[in-house]
Design brief:
seven-stranded mixed beta sheet, 7 strands, binds cytidine-5'-monophosphate-5-N-acetylneuraminic acid, about 270 residues
């Protein structure tokens, strides 16, 4: 498995990973049970063309980073799952343009997801681990988490907030590229929300700064900047192929190693560039 040059790898990502959201016209979402639930506008139409974007990982190493103002200086900011901003603005900023959540959170923590105001800002996108290269119909029959009910409940409560379902094909198109560019055999589990969010922003933005996905000098076993929970697997990966994702992102970095060390910051070009 020979590694591609960063330029070739970027082209592979751009050409082979279809970053699309499920649309109301896509079967089986074109049935009467789904009528009016999915947003009418595409994600591209909703966000418009974005310049400089930030992706903020949820890593514990964001603590005491003072990166908030720098993160907020971007045109758009993507955050993950239940990562809060209130009380953490100094380190992670306060702007949220897109929040990418996994189907486990939406399902297992449904009540909290439906009532916590954290989720009411910006555009929501949910994704669910699908069987390897499954057709959308096959996945629909057996999603990893049965989140469709919670999705509909949320849409009824917040009809004006854009809330998308990520097309499940994307995760395996991305996984194939991770595998092709890694020397080891990777467990066939989908990429982390972090990696999916990075590629979503590369599609939407001219340039993407990613914070604390590659850990800085503040690297810690504390899992999240907002919790007192220790687990090395949060940074290195267990279920998700996090280590391979991070190697790939390191390979694509257009910024300096100094920026990684001090700010945990990686700079990636948008696909249109
Ligand atoms: O922890 P999680 O991820 O929400 O983090 C979001 C993304 O930030 C990057 N990260 C996080 C912590 C860390 N120390 N280093 C990092 O690089 C990763 O890229 C990560 O994807 C997920 O990917 O959806 C995940 O979600 C959690 C959990 O489901 C949600 O937080 C909701 O409670 C998973 N944890 C568990 O299931 C216990 C986690 O494995 C993956």
């Amino acid at each position: 498995a020979a590694k591609l040059s960063p330029e070739k790898l970027l082209c592979q990502l751009r050409d082979r990973v279809n970053v699309t959201m499920v649309r109301g016209s896509d079967g089986p979402f074109n049935s009467s049970e789904w009528q009016h639930y999915l947003p009418e506008k595409s994600l591209n139409e909703t966000v418009g063309r974005l310049g400089r974007c930030a992706v903020v990982s949820s890593a514990g190493s964001l603590k005491s980073s003072h990166l908030g103002p720098e993160i907020d200086s971007h045109d758009a900011v993507l955050r993950f799952n239940g990562a809060p901003v209130k009380g953490f603005q100094e380190d992670v900023g306060q702007k949220t343009t897109i929040r990418l959540v996994n189907s486990q959170l939406v399902t297992v923590e449904e009540q909290q997801f439906l009532k916590d105001v954290l989720y009411n800002t910006g555009i929501l996108i949910v994704w669910d681990p699908a069987p390897y290269h499954a057709e959308i119909h096959e996945w629909y029959q057996k999603p990893d988490y049965k989140f469709f009910g919670a999705y509909k409940s949320y849409r009824i409560r917040h009809p004006e907030q854009p809330f998308y379902i990520l097309n499940p094909k994307m995760q395996w198109q991305l996984w194939d590229i991770l595998q092709e560019n890694s020397l080891e055999h990777i467990q066939p589990n989908p990429p982390s929300s972090g990696m999916l969010g990075i590629v979503i922003m590369m599609m939407l933005c001219d340039e993407v700064d990613v914070y604390e996905f590659l850990p800085s000098k503040r690297q810690t076993d504390i899992c999240h900047y907002y919790q007192k929970f220790h687990d090395r697997a949060c940074t290195m990966g267990a279920y998700h192929p996090l280590l391979f994702e991070k190697n790939l992102v390191k390979h694509l970095n257009q910024g300096t190693d100094e920026d990684i060390y001090t700010h945990g910051k990686v700079t990636l070009p948008g696909f249109r560039n």
